[in-house]
Write a structure and sequence with these properties.
Structural class: alpha/beta
Strand content: 15-25%
Shape: globular
Bound molecules: nicotinamide-adenine-dinucleotide
Distance between the termini: 48 Å
Order of helices and strands: EHEHEHEHHHEHEHEEEEHEH
Number of strands: 11
CATH superfamily of the largest domain: NAD(P)-binding Rossmann-like Domain
Strand order of the largest sheet: 1-11-8-7-5-6
CATH class of the largest domain: Alpha Beta
Largest sheet: 6 strands, parallel
């Protein structure tokens, strides 16, 4: 069996086109142009690429974007002062502080400083709490992208056995929560695995939908995958042979029923969802 390839790039392009239309009608109704402000601290090459891609995507969707750069020696108070300025700026609807931050910066304090109604990454505790309670303001971008991919591919989620490997705050924990919440795109039975999980292979083999976000290249082998499972690979690693994910794609695609490629799977959806959240932030600020 060769797995169906879940084309995240194509689905993301569709979503971005939909958002472009929604932005156009929002601007014509309100005269307000949604605006995303990105903050980049230091010169991490991968972060530079991510921020550039996000700005290009904003441009294409008719969303205005700004970039605020701080040196990698920036202090906590300098970054907090910049966030305060963006929080106060009524023309700014979404604020994104690109991670990772230099080690002198306490990430949690920065995330909490962003006004929750401008927190388009949805990392602020208030937005995390709202998501957990099933009444989100914004959903975090990568998990929201995974959920959209499953829904738009017509993959049944309700009642399915889902195994998530990785418990990060930005992917593993929120996707486990979102897929087990009530309602469309939820109602699954979810197991969340991590570095202390025992018998990981056999738990992973129970999954009808297996979501992998552990940050270890090609960690998931064919022996860990149930025949016909849907496999979502969140990992991204630069190697001499190009980009690879957390899943051994060549072997697992012989066992799985459907699989996301790397690149071209989850990554493009993350950017699309950032646009979705920025438009939502602008709508909320306009009271619509
Ligand atoms: P992270 O690095 O913050 O955390 C890794 C998690 O994996 C931890 O919870 C840990 O418990 C678990 N883990 C590590 N080794 C394990 C093992 N041997 N067995 C079981 N669990 C183990 O993770 P992250 O930030 O979610 O990132 C994961 C990967 O996804 C990275 O490659 C990252 O680059 C990528 N990523 C991609 C996107 C995207 O848009 N495609 C977005 C975010 C992250």
């Amino acid at each position: 069996m060769t797995a169906k390839v879940l084309d995240g790039k194509k689905i993301a392009a569709n979503i971005r086109a939909e958002i472009g239309e929604e932005v156009e009608s929002f601007v014509s109704q309100t005269g307000i142009v949604p605006h995303l402000s990105a903050v980049l601290v230091g010169e991490n090459p991968a972060s530079e690429v991510y921020v550039r891609n996000k700005q290009r995507a904003c441009d294409e969707a008719g969303i205005a974007s700004g970039l605020h750069r701080l040196a990698d020696t920036a202090t906590q108070s300098e970054l907090l002062a910049l966030i305060d300025e963006l929080n106060q700026d009524r023309a700014v609807h979404g604020i994104l502080v690109q991670l990772p931050l230099p080690e002198q910066i306490a990430e949690a304090e920065i995330q909490e400083a962003i006004c929750p109604s401008k927190d388009v990454d949805a990392f602020h505790p208030e937005n995390v709490g709202r998501m957990v309670q099933g009444k989100p303001r914004f959903l975090p971008c990568t998990p929201q992208g995974i959920q959209q991919l499953l829904v738009r591919e017509g993959i049944e989620i309700a009642g399915r056995r889902v195994v998530v490997i990785g418990r990060s705050d930005i992917v593993g924990k929120p996707i486990a929560c979102m897929l087990s919440n009530r309602g469309t795109g939820g109602d699954a039975t979810v197991t969340l695995c991590h570095s202390k999980t025992e018998a990981l292979d056999s738990i992973a083999r129970e999954a009808e939908i297996l979501i992998v976000a552990i940050g270890q290249p090609e960690f998931v082998t064919a022996a860990m995958v149930r025949q016909g499972a849907v496999v979502i690979d969140v990992g991204i690693h630069r190697t001499d042979d190009g980009l690879v994910g957390d899943v051994d794609y060549a072997a697992v695609s012989q066992i799985a029923g459907a699989i996301t490629p790397v690149p071209g799977g989850v990554g493009p959806l993350t950017v699309a969802m950032l646009l979705r959240n920025t438009l939502r932030a602008a709508e909320l600020s306009a009271g619509s």
